[in-house]
Amino acid sequence: MDEKSWVFHIGPVWFDGTVTTMLALTVLIVFLIVFIFTRNLKMKPTGKQNAIEWVVDFTANIVGDNMPKKEVRNFSFFSFTLFLFIFVSNQIGLVTKIVSPSEISYWKSPTADPLVTMGLALLVLVLANFLGADRFGFKGYVKNSFFAPMPALFPIKILEEFTNVITLGLRLYGNIYAGEVLLTVIASMVTSAGWIALPLAIPLEMIWIAFSLFIGSIQAFVFTTLSMVYISHKIELED
């Protein structure tokens, strides 16, 4: 997939227009989902209220499964926001494909770009370290994060900070990018082989879209879960 993104600049700073646009659209969709699904809340929920409450409970359980129960209220909203943002980002590229004759892509999942996923991973790890320093003080944070349970683990703990960012970001990117590549390959069957390939391409496309929806949902869950694990390691005392 030799597609390129359109770019623009503000002064001397250049931006990837496709990724920037899709990120803004993802944020708008997440906002609209929450706004629409939380209108006219009732004591006896039905329909859309049931759906949004299920997501709230689901993400709160992610926090509860990886942190002490006392932390659920502190991180449930962050978990909810992170999960919903990544879920929508993963799925938005399955809606359509807009590519110009010059192979410039105008529509794709933001998480199919490594800079986005690595940025999210770095954000999570920076937040985790900041919260650790805020809770224990800088000296206590360094001791708990890098010298516990024994000082000999210090080099491994430092290395772990880098590997956590890389694995968290690249796992998400690899799964979403691979899904979009295969969708493009299946769609190209029609353009290369002609309409004779349509009876085969359509079922394959539908099957892979369904599979990609499943993978995108799983990856949103995995990213959110690992984020809570990493934060937990920084804000809880090592034994």
Automatic annotation (TrEMBL):
Transmembrane regions listed in the UniProt entry: 20-38, 75-95, 115-133, 181-202, 208-231
Locations listed in the record: Cell membrane
Keyword Transport among UniProt keywords: yes
Chief location bin: membrane
Designated gene of the protein: atpB
Lineage: Bacteria, Bacillati, Bacillota, Bacilli, Lactobacillales
Family statement: Belongs to the ATPase A chain family.
Protein name as annotated: ATP synthase subunit a
Annotated source species: Enterococcus alishanensis
Membrane topology designation: Multi-pass membrane protein
One Pfam family this sequence matches: ATP-synt_A
Purpose of the protein: Key component of the proton channel; it plays a direct role in the translocation of protons across the membrane.
